[in-house]
Structure formats: C-alpha cells, structure tokens
User: Fold these one by one.
Assistant:
Number 1:
Amino acid sequence: MTSSREVFIQGLTREGKPFRPSDWAERLAGAMSSFRPGGVRGGIGAHLGYSPLCVPRVINGISCVIVSEQLRDMEPMAWDFVMNFARDNQLQVTDACLLPDAGSGSAS
C-alpha cells in the first residue's frame, strides 16, 4: 500500500512570528518547480507551473509550502534543500497529509 504524506512548512517562526518576505512560499516552490514525477516538461509555458511535489498554499491565513515525501525518494538533494531552508529560517514544520476538498468526492 502506497501512502502519500506531506510535510507542511509554515510561514511562522518557532516564536510564532510571520516569516518574511511575504512571497517566500512562492519563491521556494518556484525553485523546486523542475522536480516533477516523470521529469521536466518541455515546451511553451512549461516553466509556469509548480511541481506537484512542492506547492505553496495559504492555510488558515498562513503561507505554507506543502512538500510531498515523494520528493525525498525522487531527489534527496532537493528534499534536503527544502528541509534545510525550513530549519535555517526556524520555520514550523508539521508532518501531515493534505485531504481532498470536501466537494471533490461523492458523499452519500
């Protein structure tokens, strides 16, 4: 059984202060955009999307980067880069699993 887990890097320091600059999550996810399952896509606009393994999100008003553990298996150096970024900037990191939107599944 394969389970996909994520690590949530929150834009809050260990002291609870907002991390700056405000676009840090987009910058970090942008730096990881080429690390994708199946490799880098070519063609026009290929550089415009985030990797599904490292995406920025705002959760409860806090900027976050959600990093799939698949990145560690696929490219350990990229995983280390992201985790070291969080550690060096004293950001809060939580192991979790992002659940699908309530409206995306069928409910009976």
Number 2:
Amino acid sequence: MSPAAPESASNLTSLCVFCGSQAGTDPAYAAAAAALGTDLARNGVALVFGGGRVGLMGITADAALAGGGQIIGVIPTFLKDKELAHARATEMLVVPDMHTRKKTMFERSDAFCVLAGGVGTLDEMFEIITWRQLHLHNKPIIILNTSGYWSHLVALLERMIGEGFAHLGHDALITVVERPEDVLATARAELAAPKPPVVFKV
C-alpha cells in the first residue's frame, strides 16, 4: 500500500496523533496527551486520530474537544462494533480495515506526532517513517519522548545507521521533542523549511 496524497502545505491545519489505547502507568503520559490536545484546540489545528474513546487516544481527543477544537476519528468497522469509537468526534470516518485506516489518517494530516503507545503505535509509526524514507511523502514526524519513553527506540535507529542497516541521514526522518508544547512549533518550522528527502540505496 502506498499513499496517494499531495505534499503538505506550509500551514499546519491538522495533526495526526499515534498513541496508545491504554493510558500507561506513569501519569506523565496522560498529562502530555491532554496538554497536546489542549494545544491543538488553542491553535486551531484539527486532531486526526484512531477514533477511540479509550487510553491516550481518548485523553487527547477529550482535551481537544474541551478547548473547542475539532477531532477527526478514523476507525475500522470491527473496532466501532466493539463500541470503542469516540461518541463526540467532530467527524468519524468508519473504514473497512486497518490498512485503509492508516492511509486515510495519512491523507487527512499535514504532520504526525507519536505519543507513548504499544505495538499498534509502533506499527503506525514505522509505516509512516518507511513511506517517508521511500519518498512517498515528506511530512513532519514528531516523536514526543515523554519521560524518555522512546529513548531506546531512538538509540536503536542510531544503531541501525551505525551497523549499516540504514544510511546516514535516516535520523532526519523523525524529530524528537521532550515537551508537548514543542510539538506544533516543531511541525510548523519543518513545514516552512522541509527537510531534504533522505538518500537511500537499494
């Protein structure tokens, strides 16, 4: 599957958030999700998310709604049938499967932010990073490293380069920030001055 959407404009109108369907054991994760949702609403940036009402997904969405923001959920039919869809979404797109969900989230978003999460979040994150590596898009991908949650992953990516499984410059596929209040500014800065496509060899 490959995305078929134009490159983002320099104006940030929507941010896709990948995150856990659980809240995690450290309250800092929920606090970061709520802060990001509030910031999205304050800045008039729509939240694009997995459509769930639970975990960090629900916390981010609830905070955006509380601030008067818009939330756009994208949920596959089987999860909607389990009554996991957010009931107050501004717009809820029900899609047939997980593949369509990721493609739709990509098409509706100017940039991406990854919060703490599990294997589903990893799946979403690595697919959007891979698409960027393959020059299918050049949208910002921001990793919010709350409480060092993603530090081991960042170290693994650096090791991939060091061991010759990724090329120099692949670290530019993502941008890591430590605070939720830095997410939107970082995305806007990169949209205004896009990173050059990463060179890869096959």
Number 3:
Amino acid sequence: MEVESARPITGRATPRSERAIGAFMFACAALSIFTTAGIIAVLAIETVAFFSEVGIGRFFFDSEWTPLFADKHFGIWPLIAGTLLTTGIAALVAVPFGLLAAIYLSEFASHRARATLKPMLEVLAGVPTIVYGYFALVFVTPALQAVIPGLAGFNAVSPGLVMGIMIIPMVSSLSEDALHAVSDSLREGAYALGARRLPTIFRVVLPAAMSGIAASLVLAISRAIGETMIVAIAAGQQPRLTLDPRVPIETMTAYIVQVSMGDTPAGTIEYRTIFAVGSTLFLFTFVMNVFGQRLARRYRSH
C-alpha cells in the first residue's frame, strides 16, 4: 500500500513577512507610549508655566478657588473636595450593588439567566454620560428634594448616585469574571470540609478572586474621578471646600469644561489653570492605578 506524500503547507509566513508583522505590532505599541508621553509633556509644560506665575503655596495652601474672578485665588482643595465627594457617593452605590450582582451572576444564577442578565446589566455602560447628567438634573434631584430637606437644585448627591449607577456594570462585570474564573476545586474542597454555600462564597471564593475584584474597584473609582458631563450638568459650578453633599459644588473635570468653552484667551493664567488642574487629576488617577496594581499583586501572591 502506497503512502501518499505529505502535502506541502501553503500560506506559511516567510521571515520577511514575520518581521513586517512584528514591526507593525511594535509600532502599535509605541504609538500608545508616544501618545502618553505627548500628553504628559503638554501637561508638564503648561503646568510649569502656571507655577511660574502662581506659587505652589498658593495652589496647595489656599482654601478658595476663584481664578476667573477679579479677586483671584488658586487653592485647588475646593475642586478636590468636590471630586472626592461625588466619587465617594458613587463608590457607596457601585461597590455593594456591583459586588452583589457579581456574586449572584457567578454563584447563584443559572447559565441561561447569566447569559441574559449580564448583557442587560452592561447596557448601562453604553448610555451616554450626558444622558445620565440630564437624568440626574431633571429626575433624580427633584425626587431627592422631596425627601432631603435643604437640597439645592445643584448638589453632590444626585450626580454621585447617578455616577454610581453608571459604574455598576464595570464593577459587576469584571468582578463576575474574576469570580467565575475561580477553580471549582476550591468550592468542592470547601463543601467536602462541611462548609455551606454562603461561607464558601465569602471565605473561599471571594478571597481567591480578590485580585480581579480589587482591579475592578480601582478602575471603577478612577472612572468616577474622571467623569465629566454628569457633574458638569448636575453638580453646579460653585467650588467650595465642604463635605455637605446637599449644596452645589464643582469638580476638577467640571472646571476644565467650564474654562474650555472658549471664553478664556489662550496663554493667560486663567487658561493655564486647566492644565494645573488636569495635572492634579492625572496624578490622582495614576496613584489609583499604581495602588490597584500593588493591591492586585499582593492578593495574587497570597
């Protein structure tokens, strides 16, 4: 019986084509690095120009922010307070609801229910943020004014709650993926030792998936810190150093939008404030990402 000769393999990549593909992939990776470097360079140049006119002490030790007024103050803390206030409210909404949704989808829902509910939940992430902003202004705020005395028309509560709803899919989806990736052998081992379902979830599955959960929380909070349109529409534009969520406040992103509308001449000190604020915002998100990576690495090593 004759053995058929092996067919030559066609379509194999030649060394030249492999080098071309490798060069293209390197160019794609380098593009993102150069883009990041360009953003940092622009922020750094304009921020240095800002601090050449405004001392660092006025920026960090003043409690008022009025660079667009005749009596100019450049204290960044009112904008930081407004940003942290809305972000904190959003985290109080998104973290528990997102984690509970992730636990249900991973540990309790059937395969059919999971395949149906997860895409429906992720639809929330596709709603434009300007729609969320007007929803907070025309629906959530009037509803809250009926139950919260002294709540102003622009406040921190309404955009904080809506931002929390917006980032729930980010927490739930990424956390559910982390929980779903936990090996079934860990669950079966806990059941074999006599543990029930809830203790197994909270004492075995959650710690095993903590690196992914921590990453989802950091990404969601970073997303809330950088949110623009919701706070620009519903939080007001009154920078004040306060922890009262019922009054109008202004966040760092909302101030950047306010100055970037085109009324402020380029090259002026008022214009350069947006780069100083942008650098502060960049530093916040950078610290959050570094913290999230270290936290994830710590839980992964355990």
Number 4:
Amino acid sequence: MNESVEKAECAWQPLTLRGVSAFAGAPLRRLLLVQFVVALVAAASVVWFLHRAWFPIIGEAIRQLPTQGELRSGRLDWQGPTPSRLAEGRFLAIVVDLDHAGEARSPAHVQVEFGRADCKVYSLFGYARAAYPQGRTVAFNRGELGPWWGAWAPAILAIAAGLVVGSLMAIWACLATVYFLPAWLVGFFTNRELSLGGSWRLAGAALMPGALVMCAAMVLYGWGALDIVRLAVAAALHLVMGWVYVVASPLRLPRQAVATATENPFV
C-alpha cells in the first residue's frame, strides 16, 4: 500500500496536528463529510442552547402580554403599563419601555426592549436598534402570539439548525480559500509533500478543532459554567486555534525525497 493511500485512510479525525495534516492526501469527500459532522454538532449545541435558555423566556413573555395590542404602521399599540418587564432569565430578558427610559434594565446577558417606534437589543457589546415595519400590522398580544409560538417554535429550531449547518459549511470553504496559501508556503519552504489542492484540504480540516472548542464553550455557557465574557474569549481562541493548525500541521507531513546523483555526469 503506497503512502498516499495510507494518509487517506488515516484522515478521519481533525483533532491533532498529524490528524489534520492527513487530510492533505485525502479525497475531498472525506473532508466534506468530517466538516458536515462537525457542523451538525455545532447546530445541535446552538439548538440545545436556544431551547434551554431563550425559548422558555420567550414563551413566558408571550403569556405576560395583555389581551390587546399590536404593531401597526410602525408604532406599538401597547395596552399595559410601561416600563414593564415581561420575562427575565440569566441569558435573556424581554421588556416593554415605550420611551426607552432605561428604568427596566436587566442584568441578563441579552435584553430585548420594545419601544414606541423601535426595538433595541442590549448586550455586553452595546445595543442594536431595529425600526418596526411600516405598512403592516403584527399582533402583540397573548391571544394571537401564544398559539403562533406554540405551533412555530419547533420549526424555528429546525430552521436555526439548518442555517447553522449551511452557514458553517460556506464559511469554512471561504476560510480554507484564504488560509490554504500560508499552509502551502509553510510546506514549500520546509520541503514537505504538499500540493495546492492538499493545502486547501488541510486548511479546511485545520478549522475543525476550533469549531469543536466553540461547541463545548456554547454548552458550558448554557449550563452556566461560563459567563458571556469567557464565551467571548472562547470565540477568539477558536479563531487562533485555526491559525495555529494551519501553520503547524504542514510540518507533520513527510519531507520530499531529494534526488541524489549516482554517477559523475562529467565523466
């Protein structure tokens, strides 16, 4: 059995430097299969977190809505007191503050605040503002939103899983296209057996360890073992891990054979 076949058979776990380097000699379908499995793990961690941390708060907030209310022509028709904290947890809080006066701020990691003409989402990194849609009416009461949420919550989780898998596969392909050249240069200057196509596959596999670390961080965050600052640190770390594997994995490949002269060409 030749060396390329051996390397292809060993390309099944992108966790170690040698395991990542093995994908340089593996077929593309092997890399795509491994990436798809990791993307499924990432989607499962995201869906688990949403189902555990956010969806119960959203359901409780809907149950606290008044019997009448709607978003009409870009304005919130609110029949209850303001400010009003609808639901609150460690990870998410949902409040109504028509004037955004800041009197209903929560220590939750993310706060969704409905105002008179817009909605603001606060987090550790600041806030984002979104205006209500013009020219349409959206229910904002428990009588209409309750049944809608009960029917669509499972579908929303499934859509979120599909978006995570599709987005990660596309992002990893783009990053491999950016990272393959540094990997090839490392192999070229260290005289390793690494082609351009093998560099792209190696770069794609080098992103998997960081992705798995981010999945573990998401689960620990959902359990409360990590706060949002440590989650941000883990997100930065998983990017750095990709760079480390891209640079270090080519060094685990075998060196190119050096041709030696068997006879004196000047004789």
